[in-house]
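User: Please predict the structure of the protein below. I'd like the answer in structure-token form so I can feed it into my own downstream comparison script.

Assistant: Understood. Taking the following sequence of 486 residues as input:
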Amino acid sequence: MLFKPDTKDDEQRAVPRKPGLVARLLKRMVSLAITLVILGGLGYAGWYAFQQKQGAGGRRAGLRPDLAVPVLAATPRLQDVPVYLDGVGSVKALNTVTVRSQVDGKLIAVHFVEGQDVQKGDVLGEIDPVIYQAQYDQAVAKKAQDEALLANQKLDLARYQQLAASNAGSKQQADTQKAVVAQQEALVRADQAAIDNAAATLGYTRIVAPISGRTGLRQVDQGNIIHASDTTGLALLTQLQPIAVWFSLPQQQIVRVNAAAAKGTLAVDVFGNDGITVVDTGKLTGIDNQVDPTTGTLKLKAELPNANYQLWPGQFVNVRLKVETLSQVIVVPTSAVQRGPAGTFSYVIGEDDVVTAKPVTVTQQNEHDAVIASGLTTSDRVVTTGFANLADGSKVVVGKDGQAPTADLAPRKRSRNPDGRRGGQGEGQSREGRKDGEGKREWQGKTGEHRGRRERGDGDQKGQTGPAPAPPAVSEQSDGTAKSPP
């Protein structure tokens, strides 16, 4: 017999029960508490940030307005200031000569040491002169032969002239003999020219220095055959005293340099490797006739004495060219010139030691001094040090040059007290000691915990993957029978 299921019971089970009043109140209270906690945390964070900002502003404003700012000051002075144009150049030998042989032959001797200073006319090498000596002797013998023939022809000419004068001989024969004598005289002069040529060729077997200078590395060793057509030559000879420096200036300075050169010789200073020390001073000797289109610069040449060989060919150097001298201009230390949104200015100390910012016009300046065209007088006092806490209208106290602050070797550690003020060095050290002690204890605790975990882990690993543990030891009873463990 089939029974029909009761659908009403199923519908009642499917309908969820509504939560009670107490449950709803609890849920709302929890939500309200969470909201209050979040709002309270946000409010505390905002208040803490505001307090920190106020504290930082108070510390920045820790300089009391009624206290004077310590500064150092200087007085503008009048002096002559040279005007320089800076450039970069390279050192080159004033003269460079490749010493070559003018004849072919065997190099039988070398009379110089590599790097030796030689004078003009010193013999640097010798070529075997045997062949050229024979040619010279042959030319001399040829001239002697022609001179003897000339002497005989002159005697014949005298006889023919006497016979022609007495009508005993032909006048034509006398004239012919006169022409023969002239030809022979010309031949003798040609022999003399041949002798001179042979003598010059023989002299070329001695290779001499064409200029005074220093020899380079030898290119040919003794015993080799050298030729006049060799490009390397025997050695390279360079003149180092005086020496030349080629440098470049921007094309915008062409007019200024030409105007200064027209007034007289311009001085040129060359700096050493440190870029500060002047190692040599010379004069400007040449200006190129065109601007390099690839760089937009003009090449100039200077000559320097190089007395101590402080300059060497191929060396790169910094150069400055003196173009003029500013006479009796106002000069202040470069640190006294400050730059702001409106341009350059200086703090001038007035009455009651109150500073005023005055705009100034700077003509030129370097790392030490600045030339002031307008804005200052020699009776003013300008601030040179202490700008960090300085403003227009601030009261200052002027220190001495011996009180200038010196830079610390390393930054000093600063600590803060709980009330926001900076603590001293002793407090900072004590706080550091406490921090170090806490850190050490924490580290030791962590190390011990980590060691215990590692040991436990090792034991578990051995129990799982290691060899089977050994069976427990069997103890014997007093009667001799073995007793197994429970």
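That's the full token string. The longest helix spans residues 425-465.
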